[in-house]
Every structure is written in structure tokens, then in C-alpha cells.
């Protein structure tokens, strides 16, 4: 009887130990599952969609961390962040919106530049309006289409460029449309809705056969840095910082692939 009692105690100890190992294993698997399903939320300028999508996909493959991307023009993204007060990454089209976001108090860290927004003039193939410079945009008969200055970084930059020419008023009189994104400006010009437009250099990358591209004199052009930032609302600050570092390291080559200038 003594031996039977001793045996029962022994088996109870063994089963308890196995149970602890099982629970520990379950806990470990649960933790791994939780880590593998962690998500970063990023607000990205519409003009940066292609390169940032590639970077988010390669980052997930490398780390297992998913990056959910919201694309819109920079002005709309600002409103979203301010309204929702959520998210980890904010990457608008340029420093203008980053500075405004800093003033509004929701930027944590800034890295970059990753690439540059370089404004160029576009015309339909053949350049019937004979545009060769920014100053030519002031001529009678020019029908100019530009990105909206309140919604886009490139739109804000365009008005700064006009100011530097000394012909700001004449150029602004020729604006027939302010559109939500540079991509929409490019579409309008290729369809003949205007004889001149201003977009970002990378927007022309795939449509050179349909357009004439006129680069601006560096003395008047306003090249803007494209940074990546983290938000104060982030609940995954270490992960957000790691993704920013990944973009800083791998971003220039990826942006270059899509026609952005990186130097």
C-alpha cells in the first residue's frame, strides 16, 4: 500500500511537469502567433504608392510584420491623422507637410531624405504651345493644369516656383484646373485637356512617348525632400523605428526604380 501511494505521488508529479511543459509550449506558440500578426499602419502620399508598396511587401517577407498602407494626397492624409489620432508611419510627399504636422504636434521622429520630388513641366507630344521654361507658362494662350496647392506637396512647390519667376500673376491667370494628384494632371495633359502641366519627374517615367518633358532651371526650381516619419500615436514605436530604418536603407534604390531622383 505504501508503494502504491508512492507511485501515485510520482505519477502526479510527472503529469504536473508534463502539463507545465504543454502550457509553456502553448504560451510560447501564442506569443509567436501574436508577434507574427503584428501590424504597422502607415499613411502614404499617393504619389509614393509604387515604391512604398514594394518596400512594405519586402519588409513583411523579411520580418513577418505586415504594413497596412493608406494612400491619399498629403493634405487628405493630414486630416485623417488629425481626426483618427492613430497610426504608426506618416510619409507625405514632402517636408512642407512634415513641418505642418510637426507644428500640429503629431510627429515623433523624422528620417531621410529617402528621395526627392523634382517638379517638371509637361506638354502633349509636339509641344504646340512652345513651352521651354517656367516663364513661358505666363504667355497668352497657355492652358495650365497643376496639382492642388492645398492637397499636394508638388502643388505647394509650384506656387513657390511661380513666385521666383517674377511672373506669378500672369502664370496663375493661365491655370485652368487644380487637380487632386500629379497623376491626374498627367492624365489630363495626355488627353489634351490643357497644353501644359506641372508634375513630379517620376510621374513621366512610363509616358515619355506621349509627352514632352521640360526640366526647369535649377535657379527657379524647388526640389523637395521626401522623408519618412513616425507618429506620436504609435503603439509599436520599436517596430515603427525599424521600418523607418528599413526604408532609409532600401528606399533610395526602390524609389529610383520608379523614376524618382535620389541625389
Automatic annotation (TrEMBL):
Residues at which molybdate binds: 74
Coiled-coil annotated residue ranges, if any: none
GO molecular function, one term: molybdate ion binding
Protein name (record): Molybdate transport system substrate-binding protein
UniProt organism field: Marinisporobacter balticus
Keywords: Metal-binding, Molybdenum, Signal
Record InterPro entries: ModA, ModA/WtpA
PANTHER family documented for this protein: MOLYBDATE-BINDING PERIPLASMIC PROTEIN, SULFATE-BINDING PROTEIN
Keyword Ligase carried by entry: no
PROSITE patterns (alphabetical): PROKAR_LIPOPROTEIN
Any one of the GO BP annotations: molybdate ion transport
Similarity-based family: Belongs to the bacterial solute-binding protein ModA family.
Gene3D superfamilies referenced in this protein's UniProt entry, alphabetically: Periplasmic binding protein-like II
Amino acid at each position: 500500500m505504501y508503494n502504491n501511494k508512492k507511485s501515485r505521488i510520482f505519477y502526479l508529479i510527472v503529469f504536473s511537469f508534463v502539463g507545465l511543459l504543454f502550457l509553456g509550449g502553448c504560451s510560447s506558440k501564442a506569443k509567436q502567433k501574436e508577434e507574427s500578426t503584428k501590424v504597422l499602419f502607415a499613411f502614404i502620399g499617393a504619389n509614393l504608392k509604387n515604391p512604398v508598396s514594394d518596400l512594405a511587401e519586402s519588409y513583411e517577407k523579411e520580418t513577418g510584420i505586415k504594413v497596412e498602407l493608406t494612400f491619399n494626397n498629403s493634405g487628405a492624409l493630414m486630416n485623417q491623422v488629425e481626426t483618427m489620432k492613430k497610426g504608426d508611419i506618416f510619409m507625405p510627399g514632402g517636408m512642407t507637410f512634415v513641418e505642418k504636422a510637426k507644428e500640429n504636434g503629431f510627429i515623433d521622429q523624422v528620417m531621410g531624405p529617402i528621395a526627392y520630388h523634382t517638379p517638371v513641366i509637361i506638354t502633349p507630344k509636339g509641344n504646340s504651345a512652345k513651352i521651354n521654361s517656367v516663364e513661358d507658362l505666363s504667355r497668352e494662350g497657355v492652358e495650365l493644369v497643376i496639382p492642388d496647392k492645398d492637397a499636394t506637396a508638388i502643388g505647394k512647390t509650384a506656387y513657390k516656383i511661380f513666385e521666383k519667376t517674377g511672373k506669378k500673376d500672369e502664370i496663375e491667370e493661365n491655370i485652368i484646373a487644380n487637380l487632386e494628384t500629379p497623376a491626374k494632371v498627367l492624365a489630363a495633359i495626355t488627353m489634351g485637356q490643357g497644353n501644359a502641366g506641372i508634375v513630379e519627374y517620376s510621374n513621366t517615367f512610363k509616358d515619355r512617348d506621349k509627352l514632352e518633358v521640360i526640366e526647369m532651371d535649377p535657379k527657379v526650381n524647388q526640389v523637395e525632400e521626401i522623408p519618412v516619419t513616425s507618429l506620436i500615436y504609435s503603439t509599436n514605436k520599436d517596430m515603427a523605428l525599424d521600418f523607418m530604418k528599413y526604408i532609409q536603407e532600401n528606399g533610395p534604390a526602390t524609389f529610383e526604380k520608379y523614376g524618382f531622383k535620389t541625389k
